[in-house]
Amino acid sequence: MAVILSILALLLTMSDVYIALYVVSSASWLVKGWLFLPALMYWAFIAWIHFTGDTHQMILNCVMWITICIALPTFVFTVFSIVGKGLGLIWHPLYPTMSWIGAGIAAVWFVIAVYGSVFGWRRLEVKNTDIILANLPENFNGYRIAQLSDFHIGVYGATPDAVNKIVERVNSLNPDLIVFTGDLVNTSPEELTQFTEVLSRLKAPDGVISVLGNHDYCIHHRYKGGNTPDRALARVVRAEESMGWNLLRNRAVQIRRGNDSIAIVGVENAGSGHFPDKSDLKKALRDVPENECKILLSHDPSHWRREVLPATDIPLMLAGHTHAMQFRLRNFSPSKWTYPEWGGLYREGNQQLYVSTGVGGNIAFRFGVYPTIDILTLHCGNTHFKGKP
């Protein structure tokens, strides 16, 4: 992370130098000094993180706010202006035109960034989705699951009322089951201290079932005094258990309705690349009857194509992880460049994947894809209803 932040800080500094020399060259040094203030703050935060290992959410938020609200628009303007300078050597009017285009794009992004940081990340939405499962038992027809994902609870540290609002809204929807598909914390278990009581208020007839996400392993934190990621993970696990959540770590539980039952299967994070892979799907399925309707909880949606589709007949997997990169314009999100299945319902033959875009995020910013409670209503394969997916 330090390398990426240093590159961003360097780009911001170079952009400021360019603007000071070529755009506001006639301005006083006092004005130019104010221009460099965000870059100086950026470098100060990076130095603090590097030398102290402190990744407190407020520090991360400040760094990210400078990135999205100041560094990105400044860099966009600089690129357009420099390109305009080059084209201006061929035809002079292109230089001011390109600079104005860059300024316009930067201004639009600045407005988006401010809205997403101040309002967007607290704009709670409910998304209803009907899902047909061929082997769903009759007694589960109409069964409603509330899916929450990716709290990254530390991001709510300054506004705990937002978490209370989410809990109250979920409970008011009266789901049969609540599932949480990973990333309860952002960097450390300390984030949970002020939230365990309110999160324990999540209630449903069949309880709250959860799995771990990559952030729950607390590997994005520098530890001191004998603390380790394993100890931090143990604290996260204990917190979920103390809240009354049924945490599935490569195991399954059965839910019954009369003589019928379904299996909720949960695996630890099935990551790839630099994300941890602690999953054991074979172990999780070991005691599940072969013909039972199964719903898999797995944090990373890429697990679906890597193992679930080629190796199992699981009809439905629920995932999170992507946040849709906390930015969407209509049906486009930059998350699609990394994850083909980044948000919503996907099908491959008789198997389906639902990816929640989550309620939280790494930083307090969302635009176009707001904190979402997903209500998934299950229907038997012979069900016919308006709006059949």
Compact description:
This protein is α/β, with parallel strands linked by helices and 389 residues long. It has helices at 2-23, 29-35, 37-52, 57-88, 94-118, 160-172, 196-199, 229-242, 281-285, 302-311, and strands at residues 125-133, 144-148, 177-180, 208-210, 246-247, 251-257, 260-266, 293-297, 316-319, 344-348, 351-355, 372-380.
Structure description:
This protein has 389 residues and is α/β, with parallel strands linked by helices. The protein folds into 2 domains: 2-118; 126-380, Metallo-dependent phosphatases (Purple Acid Phosphatase, chain A, domain 2, 4-Layer Sandwich). Helix content is 38%, strand content 17%. The chain is built from 10 helices and 12 strands. The chain has helices spanning 2-23, 29-35, 37-52, 57-88, 94-118, 160-172, 196-199, 229-242, 281-285, 302-311, and strands spanning 125-133, 144-148, 177-180, 208-210, 246-247, 251-257, 260-266, 293-297, 316-319, 344-348, 351-355, 372-380. Strand 4, helix 8 (229-242) and strand 5 (246-247) form a beta-alpha-beta unit.
CATH level-two architecture of the largest domain: 4-Layer Sandwich
Q: Terminal Cα separation, in Å?
A: 41 Å
Give, in spatial order, the strands making up the sheet with the most strands: 1-12-2-3-4-5
Q: Helices and strands: which structural class?
A: alpha/beta
CATH topology annotation of the largest domain: Purple Acid Phosphatase, chain A, domain 2
The biggest sheet amounts to: 6 strands, mixed
Contiguous low-pLDDT stretches (5 residues minimum) are none
Number of domains as seen in the coordinates: 2
Radius of gyration: 24 Å
Question: Per the principal axes of the C-alpha atoms, what is the gross shape?
Answer: elongated
Tally of separate helices: 10
- Content of β-strand: 15-25%
Mean pLDDT: 91
Classified by CATH, the class of the largest domain is: Alpha Beta
β-strand number: 12
Name the helix and strand elements from N-terminus to C-terminus, one letter apiece. Answer: HHHHHEEHEHEHEEEHEHEEEE
Proportion in helices = 25-40%
CATH homolog superfamily of the largest domain:
Metallo-dependent phosphatases
